[in-house]
Amino acid sequence: MERIIFYCLGAVIIAFGIASVTSRKMLRSVIYLSFVLVSIAGIFFLIDYNFLAAIQLTVYAGGIVVLIIFSVLLVHHIEMELEMAKATKKIVTAIACLIGLGVFLTAIYSYDFNVINMALTTTTADIGTGLLSYEAGGFILPFELISVLLLAAMIGAIVIAKGKKLTEKDNQPQ
Amino acid sequence: MNSALSITKNIHDWLFSIMPEAAASIAEMVLIALVYDAIKLLSKELTGTTRADKFLYNLAPYFVIISSLMALSVFPFTKEFQAFDINIGLFFLIAVSSIGVIGILLGGWSSNNKFAMIGAMRSGVQTISYELSIGLSLLTMVLLTGSLQLSEIVEVQKSGWLIVQGHIPAIIAFMIYMIAGTAETNRAPFDMVEAESELGAGFHTEYSGMKFAYFFLAEFINMFIIAAIATTVFFGAWLSPFGITESIPMLGVFWFLLKALILVFLMMWFRWTFPRLRIDQLLTLEWKYLLPLNLANIVIMALLVWLNLTISF
Description:
Helix content of chain A is 76%, strand content 0%. Chain A has six helices and no strands.
């Protein structure tokens, strides 16, 4: 049963992945992309890694796809179609993709994966303590670094959004 | 107009032929009126604009309805009556409910209609902002339960519902949650999305028949979901008040539905009481008031839990 579901999800991912890069309507390719991302969440559910599946749904399907749709809504009219690329561009892209695929496949097939018969799923409590522990195997340093990075990104966004007002205020006393 | 009338008349005749004794008082009978309405929506013509993106236009209602139906699967109606007791229950609910907005955005854009488009943009802005408040207010309560699994959240509440256990911060969290929940379901006073005096019917202006009904149904299911999450997290889900019917576990469904429907009533009460906000007021409310309040509230709740100041019986 699980095997059948896995192959179904795999077929969906491949089919919509191809559809998303070949479609000439911008919003359609975004929707195909969202199907791919949701199917990946389905694979995480299948291996009982619920937390990552829910993260995949919120961050990618609920967050990033919505943001992409937003920008498409702002810049793209319904009757517009994307242009076809030139032949030379197509060939270069195809070669780059094939090289990338080759690197991936050799990496995957050369690594010896262990099959673990683990029925236990990772609980949220484990993830939480793992993220905040400062003993061996803890992730406190990357966790804090990412929080600083996100803070910097937020401040940067505010500065960009308010850019003109901020500089005008600085110039006033002169 | 004429054909619509004749469809209604035909259904009336048909219902009359299968149950003549009920037909006399058919207008008063609410249940039959519901059947009526559903058959009417099913039999209506599906219209669309000529230059719409047909594929996305037809896909949009399914995004909305499927994401709301998926959320229904995790609620604990009684101790046994829970379809999918996943260990990240609450997080799963937030994750699934964040997908529905894609359907609204798609529906608005692919209709190729200005009003639908503006409605969809408003919906996106509104849902993305208020999702934060929903998440943070639920997180405040997770500090008390120490688990995201819905069955465990109910288990914790056997020594007092969480709104009692967490007293002041819990009540603040509940109020923020109800405000954000009303905004998230696009109900009045936050129904900027389909503000009928400005935008026709907002993002579903071009939809008719059953496709419109999907949007409409999803709105009501979402309202129930918001109420059901509040019931589970603040009001003890299927637990009876003071454990009065603890010996009859079957009654859990009754208590759950009663609490949820009272909260649904509260949301309808909002609708008929408050005037609609402007879009900038809506965003100011979320980003300048609810969000800082929420963050402060989480800190207060963490202090309470740390100092053991919670009330439990």
